Amino acid sequence: MSYIGKHISSLATPAFIVDKEKVEKNCRRMLDLAKSNGIHLRGQTKTHKTVEGGIAQTGGTKRKVVTSTLVECEMYADQGFDDILYGFPFIQSHLERVFALTERLEEFHLMVANQEACQMLEQSAPPEGKLWSVFLKVDCGNARAGVWWEDDEAVDIVKFIQGCQNLTFQGIYAHCGNSYGAHSISEVERVRDSSVEMMVSLARKLKEAGLECPHWGVGSTPSCSHASNRFENLTEIHPGNYVFYDNQQVGLGSCGLDDVAGKVLTRVLGHYPKRKQMLVDCGFTAITKQGIGSQAHPKMIAPVDDHQDLMLSNMTQEIGFVEPIAPEGSIDFSLHPVGSLLKLIPYHSCASAACHPTYYVHDSQGIIQELWTPCRGW
Amino acid sequence: MSYIGKHISSLATPAFIVDKEKVEKNCRRMLDLAKSNGIHLRGQTKTHKTVEGGIAQTGGTKRKVVTSTLVECEMYADQGFDDILYGFPFIQSHLERVFALTERLEEFHLMVANQEACQMLEQSAPPEGKLWSVFLKVDCGNARAGVWWEDDEAVDIVKFIQGCQNLTFQGIYAHCGNSYGAHSISEVERVRDSSVEMMVSLARKLKEAGLECPHWGVGSTPSCSHASNRFENLTEIHPGNYVFYDNQQVGLGSCGLDDVAGKVLTRVLGHYPKRKQMLVDCGFTAITKQGIGSQAHPKMIAPVDDHQDLMLSNMTQEIGFVEPIAPEGSIDFSLHPVGSLLKLIPYHSCASAACHPTYYVHDSQGIIQELWTPCRGW
Description:
Chain A is an alpha/beta fold. Chain A has 2 domains: 20-244, TIM Barrel; 261-345, Beta Barrel (Lyase, Ornithine Decarboxylase, Chain A, domain 1). Chain A is built from 11 helices and 19 strands. In chain A, helix 3 (70-78) packs parallel to helix 4. The longest helix of chain A has 24 residues, at 185-208. Chain A starts with 14 loop residues before the first strand and ends in a 6-residue tail after the last strand. At the A-B interface, strand 12 and helix 10 of A face strand 12 and helix 10 of B.
């Protein structure tokens, strides 16, 4: 059955629905932020993993993206994208696929997070006429992958890379994911400013050591959702979640509820007035359990769009429980007959979108215009 | 690249690996439990959602399964299965697909959880020569979907169904999911026994009211993983998770760690000795965040197979953090070089399996024998 041209209310549920105008607005705003600072945007594609989302993130150029998986790299390469960074720590088992991508693209970059990875690459011949092009992953306080920005190790690895025959150095890359731990916009801005400062400082240190450093950047949607002239001091930014945004970003002040572009459409299955609950056809396989204990209400998994007194508060595999946010609140069941629709606002759109084999992309009237097929697997 | 005949160590990671002998043993044990009690097993397919898993659950008969989604019903119907129960509350939007399944199968059953659903069905003509065959979902204390076993509503709905022209009544169905809240095997057994008692009592009440009740059963893997002569009082059981089991079931005493058949294979990406961590290529898209706060260690998401001093304690989208379980513990990094493999034991295999487009099914030596392709979506 083709849903194109039909209203979202005709969809089988649960379904991941995407407001195209909001995606375009979110993507345009991020491109403008980069442009106004005279730097590049290298959008992270992990939230949507679609060709169409990548086109929106690059403003149609299909140049400069960063991905979270090899299948994303391969999908984008197949669709004419170039200047693709596989933003995941390189290990030996990636070699065969990474070779093929290096061979077929003008610019394909790898991420290295330690010297072992550089040594492995140096010991493997790149495709004829090419070098392994690498970014060094730097930790600016988020304690994930990468070298601590202040450690001598960072300079040592870059020196090692620049002494290699088979490697070429692109620059340093940080994901300031610690911005997600902030409790206010000013705290997000402090994380952003300190991350920018650390990367600028490391880039300077490399230059002072006689080492080239073409690019240095930070990324994370909270950090990149507020204008700042600090970005001028970088060469690129690489946020990703902003394409859809979500309720976590609303809580962090990155966007308003009205900017959230991806939601889960669900139907009411039954009324349970004794328990003050409605059951809906959205279980953890359609939105994930992420969100519990991380939002204003301790039981909230997802707020209900247009009914902000209601929340998704629990789930089994295929069924969700909707109840009033306020303990003394109630549900007006007459507004929500069995079979009627609700929209849930994901806490973490990267996780919720990953549950869905198709995104139903609609206009502002709810008419489905496109189906987007994300890549899955690794 | 074909992985058949190769060792699991050749797989791209993360990968969901399934021990075929363990699946067969788990499925055989459940079939034997039903047989020894003279009742039917109607295995729930939601954990694996594969044809091969359905064959193992039915002992090759391809008869009597219960599913969680319509796509599962359609996949099993395509592959010659019959006597399929769509174990999800019927709503009007399912009608078209449910009509097709009723038409093509000898026996296709629906679940109803309220009188509205029965009314909707009664108002829709079933396929020529068929009736809408329904089970009534009953709540025996797990507070999910269905009618409370003691309420007059249960009898009223069955009376309504038996007065309908287009419906035929199959029986009553309960998922004793409250067994998951138990803290000991004896507590699981109490939940099982009380659920059995409630269903037997409702079946008796229906008969006393002059209403037929061909089938009455309970299901849930914890309840059905211990032998009991109480099952003789039922006509069927319908657990599902036992096909793979998982660390939640180990904690509930349903199985031993050695019975867990589905695991996530992952590789070490880097060593972070200052943080006493290794990073691995298993993020929340490969195992989900379910498990935090629900296991012996408050930070544990998944124990590491064969290294039971280590656990997966946090994740980003594509990266996992492995650390010692004991705060004073340490990691012997020499045992885990960059690129080496670990196996993670999912807390909830239904959720973790749902992340994977393929399951790599291996023998006891780790040689891949089959690829299973689960159905996805709804």
